[in-house]
């Protein structure tokens, strides 16, 4: 029994250790002056993906031009603003350029470059709205985006003007909340709002820019001083040679108003087919790898839960309780940003995603493995032991073959759940289907149509897996 228990625990340790070697290429980027730069995914005209799924915008062109001028390379990580800031704080990335306002509060944790852009916060309302000033917001609901200057400004005046603030993670959902009438207004940086309106967002700006502030490139306080110095030098050079002006006019000039994308469902699929396919492959890859490790982890933990040993049962119950009870979003952020903050070691996003799904889905798998084994009549084990079979052999030859018949439908259902749960990993910047959808919407602001395409893709996959589940159950009951 002790030998079997030690083998099981050894497999758990090996499993978790092996995950760290998946996709090692992501950790090799730090050599030879290559810096990992975090950014937002829905903040045009500063950062967004074009129809070739390339990250462009004022910030993207600027950091690449500075890198070329100063002789270093950059790897862009589209994490979303909030996740990017957390990743920088935990040391997962080297810098952030995401239309980040320079504030005293942020200076406490980050070192900023010289200002590379000045902006102000404006209020926008639906095109048919009669609201024209802040005093009309009393008792109303106002939308803001997490971590932005617009959110800070709205929260600073909400008591004075008597409105309620609701927060979103991306600009498109914030705009949609206003256009659908759920909120009466939103607060956004002036150039971002102007760009959105030019691209077809059905809003209008009704106030002058307030709380004017500077955008800066950020690094973690006390670190990457050479990168910060290179950014400042490169920025000075770009301003002097006219390249800075060309970059800003490219996205803010009048010539940027032409819309070339088809806005039909077929047109959106054709134009974004490559990006959607890449997101689909990442989703399937995440699901397959996670379900393999989650199944191994779950079987081991489930078997520990039925072993005739108090320690193993306690360990199994504890693992199931912790990882099944913790929200997947919290677990993902804890592994990707919390653990590196504690240990000082970076964890690639893909590896963090696999570990997250392995622990969470594995806990659920362990619960039904444990339940499936316990559903087998106790007399089966007693009969096997009475014939002189050791515990391990009794489990393998007698109990598990009967328990597996009970467990198989649950295994396939868990595969479906894992597939759906991959969407939550967009919060740590993995380019699966959900994150891909956010990136496409940031460019064309066709939220309803793009999310319909993403939803139908998931629905087809889940329908196929459901048919598979039903087929397996029929075969086993035949």
TrEMBL record:
Residues 280-469 form the ABC transmembrane type-1 domain. Keywords: Cell membrane, Membrane, Transmembrane, Transmembrane helix, Transport. The chain crosses the membrane at residues 284-307, 319-339, 450-472. It comes from the Bacteria. It is a multi-pass membrane protein. Its main location: membrane. It is found in: Cell membrane. NCBIfam families: HEQRo_perm_3TM (TIGR01726). Belongs to the binding-protein-dependent transport system permease family. This is Amino acid ABC transporter substrate-binding protein/permease.
